[in-house]
Design a protein that fits this description.
With 178 residues, this protein is α+β, with helices and mostly antiparallel strands. It has five helices and five strands; from the N terminus they run E-H-H-E-E-E-H-E-H-H.
């Protein structure tokens, strides 16, 4: 069984999401979002999506690009993920190597990646020369595994609204987020 790495095609979007959800169940994305992010990326980002394929099945993904808005030129990123049931086949290493070669040709002088805080993931990165630099934490709530806590009473002057309420003018949503 041979693993190959190739560029993402829009027809791969559902499989891309399937692999990402298996590897990172707390990261929410859709096939449409993956394609939209790729086609709308700033040209200076040199954004590229890669897939690792084994016998026609996509088993790994990688997001690759330059941190073009960084004040320090040459910074780049590569975030490879392999389906948890398909690790140990070389897909992650091949994705990373392909990405690093691409980034070097694009002018990158350093590559950053996100690694899950597990011994296997940290070991994978360290064996390839990556060093820990800063932690990241994802908060999540298991909506399928139990009951939700009771809704709290809203403070005076506060009301809950949906994003649809701002369809005509989304600026307040931007201001809250900013």
């Amino acid at each position: 069984m041979t693993v190959i790495v190739r560029d993402f095609r829009p027809a791969d979007a559902e499989d891309w999401v399937r692999v990402r959800r298996a590897a990172l169940p707390f990261m929410v994305t859709t096939a449409e979002r993956v394609v939209a992010e790729l086609v709308s990326a700033h040209p200076a980002k040199r954004y590229r999506l890669l897939v690792a394929e084994e016998d026609g099945e996509i088993i790994g993904t990688a997001q690759v690009g330059l941190a073009h808005e960084s004040p320090e030129p040459g910074q780049s990123f590569c975030n490879p993920y392999t389906h948890p049931e398909r690790t140990g086949r070389g897909a992650g290493g091949l994705l990373l190597r392909t990405a690093e070669e691409y980034l070097a040709l694009a002018g990158a002088t350093s590559v950053y990646t996100w690694v899950l805080d597990t011994p296997g993931n940290r070991s994978f990165a360290e064996k390839r020369g990556y060093e820990p630099s800063r932690p990241a934490h994802f908060l999540h709530l298991d909506l399928a595994g139990g009951t939700l806590p009771p809704r709290q009473e809203l403070p005076a002057g506060v009301e809950l609204r949906t994003a649809a309420d701002f369809a005509d003018d989304p600026r307040p949503l931007f201001e809250v987020d900013a």
